[in-house]
Specification:
Shape: globular
Radius of gyration: 25 Å
Strand order of the largest sheet: 2-1-3-5-4
Largest sheet: 5 strands, mixed
Number of domains: 2
Helix content: 55-70%
């Protein structure tokens, strides 16, 4: 593993503290710019996870979820402190985004021991598209990247210094990452193999490391078996949803595979040059070679599962590759640093331009990620705000809102209203398998059922439901925002 070395001033370095501080401010600025321009979500998962955390915070019964519990517990605790379903989860995500920068700094410093490389690594991570986007939206990925990278940094410290606290921290953090995303399980398994093959570990240390790394995966599989009669029942719904949307095309499996997505992420941003530093370290540093096994085994396992049609998400296919893309950032910074230092033919302005070009490439990737707009649209937010106002002005505090589950955007409206307990779904809350509906244009208005459910308002998005309610005499149109229409049942 590379040893820390004394650094000399370079044309692009003013001071480590200032550059890291500017990197943090730049990251925060980009994230706030995204949120401020209405970029609230890349999918419906953000709002669905927020609603799940809200249910946990209020001790409401929940069915089995394939999502691991860390996100809903952390966001649920935050909601208990400040119950704002829109703002609070995003503040949590931003916090983990900043922790991600700290983890990148710690990992880079441990691997290379050069303050200039560490500073440049933080700079690149601050404008790296996966880091920026995942900080702006309340998903579990920002948590996973921060925790996994911190665990890998501690693992690098242990491999260089053989200190027991570093090993304990590495096992705890990588074990914790397994409560956020399933990739953490793969890293935990790879780490345990590395420890078994290490001559420096005693049987007692291996036992406790194994307990820390595998306690949650074993417990979760037993929980899954109790709920679904299968130890790996959590894999079925994910694979089924992917097949339902994308079929079983081999071309699609290759296109959406995590390796393909990682290559796209790294080539567009320019971080692919980090592979030069990574391969060089693999050849010359035995400790780094063993460290590299942990993320490499996790990546290989994901690639294999994806090729078999397992473990692929149904949308935003770059997300599983995000942690590996961010992992390339320190090596990209080290390669870029060597290019600047080692090329005496370049003048100082040219060296600054080279570094600036990479920052611009990373920023361009941010633009690519976000130009298509937010999944959480302006009309979703506006309708949620209108519902909140109507419920506040209503004299009947127990009044409910029946919401049409035409697509996943219904969750955004509920989150924007900040009043999830006031909603009743018109059908099962899965647009792909809606089941029987309470309101159906082919039937008469079920007044008795609506009265039993205390439904006073109805919000719909489909054209058929709008036309039916427009012609329904007991229903009065209160507001129409985009594709959403809000009615009062008199």
């Amino acid at each position: 593993m590379p040893k820390p070395s004394d650094s000399t001033e370079t044309p692009y370095t003013i001071s480590l503290r200032r550059i890291v501080g500017i990197g943090v401010l730049l990251h925060l600025g980009l994230v706030l710019l995204l949120v401020g321009t209405g970029y609230y979500a890349i999918s419906a998962d953000e709002s669905l996870r927020t609603l799940e955390a809200y249910q946990w915070a209020h001790s409401q019964s929940q069915g089995f979820s394939v999502w691991l519990p860390f996100h809903r517990v952390v966001v649920g605790v935050a909601l208990r402190l400040h119950e704002d379903l829109f703002v609070t989860p995003r503040l949590v995500s931003i916090l983990f985004g900043l922790l991600n920068l700290a983890a990148v700094a710690a990992l880079t410093e441990t691997l290379f021991g050069k303050r200039e490389v560490t500073a440049l690594s933080v700079y690149l991570a601050a404008v790296h598209a996966p880091c920026v986007v995942l900080s702006a939206v309340p998903l579990a990925e920002s948590m996973f990247v921060a925790v996994a990278l911190a665990g890998l940094a501690c693992l690098a410290v242990w491999m260089r210094k053989s200190t027991l606290p570093a090993l304990a921290a590495a096992c705890l953090l990588i074990g914790l990452s397994g409560t956020i995303r399933y990739e953490g399980w793969l890293m935990a398994g790879a780490l345990f193999v590395v420890l078994v093959l290490s001559p420096r570990r005693t049987a007692r240390e291996l036992f406790w490391c194994g307990v820390v790394l595998f306690a949650f995966p074993v417990g979760w599989m037993l929980h899954c078996h109790a709920q679904t009669t299968s130890l790996i029942g959590f894999m079925g719904p994910v694979a089924d949803r992917y097949s339902l949307r994308h079929g079983d095309s081999l071309v699609a499996l290759m296109q959406y595979n995590v390796l393909t997505q990682l290559l796209i992420l790294s080539c567009v941003s320019g971080s692919v040059i980090g592979s030069v530093s990574l391969l060089g370290a693999w050849r010359t540093q035995p400790d780094l070679r063993r460290w590299f096994v942990v993320p490499a085994v996790a990546l290989f396992s994901l690639v294999t599962l994806g090729a078999l049609g397992r473990g692929l998400p149904s949308h935003n296919f770059w997300r599983p590759a995000a942690v590996f893309a961010v992992l390339l950032v320190p090596f990209t910074a080290e390669t870029l640093d060597r290019l600047v230092r080692g090329n005496s033919n370049l003048s100082s302005p040219e060296k600054r331009c080279l570094v600036s070009a990479f920052l611009l490439m990373f920023l361009y990737q941010c633009y690519q990620f976000t130009y298509s707009g937010s999944h959480f649209r302006a009309d979703d937010s506006a309708m949620g705000t209108s519902i909140r106002r109507v419920l506040t002005e209503s004299r009947e505090e127990s009044s409910k809102v029946l919401i049409e589950v035409e697509d996943w955007n219904f969750a955004h409206v509920i989150v924007a209203s900040r009043s999830p307990s006031s909603f009743v779904a018109n059908s099962a809350s899965d647009p792909l398998a809606p089941g029987p509906r309470i309101l159906e244009p082919s039937r008469a208005l079920p007044r008795a059922e609506l009265s039993r459910l205390k439904v006073r308002y109805v919000v719909v998005s489909s054209g058929g439901m709008r036309r039916w309610l427009d012609d329904c005499s007991p229903c009065k149109l209160l507001e129409r925002v985009g594709r959403w229409s809000l009615y009062e049942i008199r």
